[in-house]
Amino acid sequence: MKLPLKTSEALLITSRPNVFYFSGIDIAGGVFLLVTGNKKYIFSDTRFIKEAARIGKECVPIAIKKESDAWWRKTLAKHRVKTVYFEPHDITYAALKRWRRLSRGVARVAPSKINFRELRSVKRDDELAKIKKAIFFTEIIMGEL
C-alpha cells in the first residue's frame, strides 16, 4: 500500500489494527511503525524485536533503547523527515507530548488526515481470495453442525 507522503513526511502508526494492516505484525503493546516514502520501520523493545523482524512484511527492525532517544532521531534524520503524522484517534495526550519531545528539533508532529478505517476497508485481490476461502470453509463447517 503506497501512502500519499512527500519525501519529507512520515507516518507514525501506533494502533494495533493499523500496525497489523501495514506490517502483518500482531503483537500487543510496545510495537509501532514509522512509514516513510520508501521504507517501513518497526520499532520495539528487545523482547519483541526478533519476532517482529521475522513476521514484518518489508519492515526494517529497530530496537528501542530506553536509555537514549537516538534511535528515533537518527531514523528521522536519515530520511530527512520534517513532519511526522500520527493517528489522531489512537493517541493519548501524554503519548503525543512524548512524540513531540522525541522529535523536537528534528521534525514537526501533526495529526494525519488519512482515514485508516476507510483505507483498511479497501481489499486487494489476494485479500479477497483469502476471505472467499474462509467463507467457503466456514459454510462447510456450519453445514456439518
Architecture overview:
There is one protein chain. With 145 residues, the chain is α/β, with parallel strands linked by helices. The chain has one domain: 3-Layer(aba) Sandwich (Creatine Amidinohydrolase, Chain A, domain 1), CATH 3.40.350. Helix content is 42%, strand content 19%. The chain has six helices and six strands; from the N terminus they run βαββαβαβαβαα. It has helices at 16-23, 49-55, 70-78, 93-103, 116-121, 125-144, and strands at 9-13, 31-35, 40-44, 59-63, 83-86, 108-111. It is elongated and about 60 Å long. It starts with 8 loop residues before the first strand and ends with a helix.
Topology:
Elements: E1 9-13, H1 16-23, E2 31-35, E3 40-44, H2 49-55, E4 59-63, H3 70-78, E5 83-86, H4 93-103, E6 108-111, H5 116-121, H6 125-144
Parallel strand pairs: 1-5, 3-4, 5-6
Antiparallel strand pairs: 1-2, 2-3
